[in-house]
Amino acid sequence: MKKLSMLCFLLICSAAVLFAEESAESIMKGAPSQITIETIGTRAKMEIQRNGTTMAELLVDQYSVQKENDHRTFLEIKSPANVKGTRFLMVAKDGVIDQRIYLPALGKVRRITGESEGTESFLGTDFSYNDMSYLQRDSSLDTYTLLREEEYGGALCYVIEGVPKDTKSEYSKTNVWVEKGSRHLVKIAFYDRKNVLVKIMEMSDYEATQGVDTPRITKMTTLAMNTATTIHIIKMQYNMNIPDKIFTPRYLEQGR
């Protein structure tokens, strides 16, 4: 199964280049899980902070399904009251991404189109609409290179550079830290088109869920704004039965 989540120095000889690329790609695939994952259901709390102070907390339900060349994600805000009922649908099929959001205050669905809208913040969080799709992209859309090994969080990690094959991507590259022993993804550094570090994502508190090592806490920090959004997993279930109707424009608008 392709991962539901995402995730090049010049070497002297071609053999070394091939070895480095294969090594990096195998690391990014991670250790095999004990089950085949086709669907995921999650309830989480999103904590939005500015200068270290919590500004808002969102309770979010999310459902995802992965089929061959077809990935669908539905997200609904359950609280607080001022954004309750906000729903987001992303369908990525054959490399084409369709994103739509239902805003209850407006009573209508808005399609996310164009580069500028994609970089907008999702409900005031540190995740842009592009991030929502970028983090669940097919790993084959990037070229990976093993840069080095270094210690992070008390564990020795591989540091892998990922460069999107699409030159129009919001990010010019990502650097990914993967623990050598566990193969846990623990950090991602995002660079803009000017090659400036703009965001850092950190994953921690891994626990086994149905045989799959899963981070219970994910934190995205926007460096220039000194803001951060932390996702705390409340409950998660793999391979749950998710009705197909959830991933439709009608359900997005009506919630039923």
From TrEMBL:
<dbReference type="Pfam" id="PF17131">
    <property type="entry name" value="LolA_like"/>
</dbReference>
<feature type="domain" description="Uncharacterized protein TP-0789">
    <location>
        <begin position="70"/>
        <end position="254"/>
    </location>
</feature>
<dbReference type="InterPro" id="IPR033399">
    <property type="entry name" value="TP_0789-like"/>
</dbReference>
<feature type="signal peptide">
    <location>
        <begin position="1"/>
        <end position="20"/>
    </location>
</feature>
<keyword id="KW-0732">Signal</keyword>
<protein>
    <recommendedName>
        <fullName>Uncharacterized protein TP-0789 domain-containing protein</fullName>
    </recommendedName>
</protein>
